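Quick question, first post here. What does this chain look like in 3D?
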Amino acid sequence: MFLSDLLVVFAVTAVVVFLFGRAQIPSVIGLLVSGVVVGPYGLSLVDDLESVELLAEIGVVVLLFTVGLEISISRLLSMLPLMASIGLPQIAGTTFLIAAACRWHVGTLPQAIFAGLLIAMSSTAIVLKLLSDRSQSGTQAGRISISVLLLQDLFVIIAMLAVPLLAASAGVSAPANSQASHQSTQALVENPFLAVLVGFAIVVGVLLAGRQFIPKVLHEVVRLRNRELFLITLVLICLGTAAITAAAGLSLAIGAFIAGLALSESEYGHQAFAEVLPFRDTLASLFFVSVGMLLDISFVFSHFGLVCLVVFVIVLLKVFATAIPAMLAGFPVRTSLIAGGTIAQVGEFSFVLGSRGADVGLLTGDDYQTFLAAAVITMAAAPLLTNIVPQLCDWLGQSSWFGGMFHDSPPEEDIALSDHVIIAGFGINGRSLATALAEFGVPHVILELNPETVRSEGALGIDIRYGDCTRRPILEHAGIFRARAFVVAISDPASARRSVRVARDLVPELEIFVRTEYLAEVDELRLLGADVVVPAEFETALSLFERVLGIYDVPEEKIDDLVDQLRLENYGFLRSGVRRQPVQSIDSPDIHDQLGRCRISQRSVVAGQTIGELDVRAKTGVTIIAIQRSNQQIRNPGPTLQLQIGDEVSFVGSRSERTAANKLFLSTSRNTD
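> Answer (accepted):
Ran it through. Tokens below.
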């Protein structure tokens, strides 16, 4: 029964991916291995392979739809120089070198070219995961890798359109067991030029219609504030466009990719990505499992020498096919080789292309098995390669023969949005904050769920995006890993709590500010990870304090100190009712000896230094009384204690001393005197 087969697939996959995760091996590799285990060449645990492959094909459709959503026209334009100078030579060079290397083996030149196209693709999923985990996306090598990957993702369309042309030129035909299910493909092989013409016409037509029609449809859907309808519409757009391209003889995946690309430019692209992501991760995993099912382990062992040779040739040629254009473009040797090693594996889209090539006869059974084995091994070796290549460059750089050839030039400034503020909600508070930030030139991005607001404000040039701030993908698209602060200015308490929890889990050192309506929310929001919680009720009370005390000629400095003290107490006196003891007499001489707190951020230069090295008392006058580190509180820390990122330092001192201490702890310059 299909349901039991699916249960077996997910059970085995969960165990394997868990074990691979503990070993810090990418989950994609675990999915491939899971397919090998449950497949007909492994333990034969699955009987209904066709149903699993059908779900896997839907997974590919959703995968390419999300890839299209992630690629925007503006992003493509910003990377055009790297795509033209490195990406195009990389694809052309890899295709040519692989075709030349295997021409003697595969038989005809079109089949050799097809083999080159297969190997030219690299794994976007694996590379982006590795770069993100190692915080290398903003490096020179990282930007080279990402630009080449983007071009490869776009090139998949051309490669898929080229399949019928190559099949016709090679004079091959589909295997007997696949002709019945691929009649449209065979028809287009007989008329390859018509296939290419129809394919390009459909691609252009879908892009134009998508840019004009899809955003308008989604705008009307979003106005109803119905999440289920929004998701259903996305599925309709994705599968509908895929069906149109499939009817024309192209693949389902191409149509989904084009639909995602058309939607990426609309204000709903980020939210669409967040909604589809869970389905992509689940269904696309079935695709990789299905690929693993096709791998014949006995073939690998019986042709072990050939498989190892193919793997070696693929890695070597792909490294130099990327490194040489990068060096010619002016990048250092070390940077170029690291970029080449990063994308030296075979990509997930190569499996889609390889399956299509096998259907039309461009790959024989043995050649397809050789490709599958080599692809899986190169993907599994990707993390190892990204470690070995930099170490090899460092070792060569120490030799007297190569000198400084393997030393990087200073890294370029990352042009991506960074050190910015993410504002969730564009009501009165969010709008006021955005206006103030714009006045002082502080970069910021706004997340809003009102489609009318997004459209009207976006037309004015404001960086406002339709997106739910409680969703992790939305925050990632807003650049939360590079942000300085996250401000929650929404009126929904439940959503505010969820967004704080998600943001704190994503970036532990991020500064999080929350505006809430009620005092009762303060404690829970701080427990969830908010650094500053501003209740509207309390700020109204403070405004009354200041105005009333002002008419009695109380000195402004004393009023400010009282307000600061009340804020530092987290508004406890208002939440618990009238205090039995006054906060402190306004006339008390000890009014300035109050408590202050400061969190050590990732950018602060005091992180890693000891209290004694900082000489806090001499420089600021405050006394450090405690340090909160994760779930541990360190009372009366000594001078040898080293401050760490995320520490919350508590200290006492006068108003001016507390100001000086905050300046010291938040300093991003080594000059803290």
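The two ends are 73 Å apart (CA to CA).
The CA atoms of residues 388 and 430 lie 47 Å apart.
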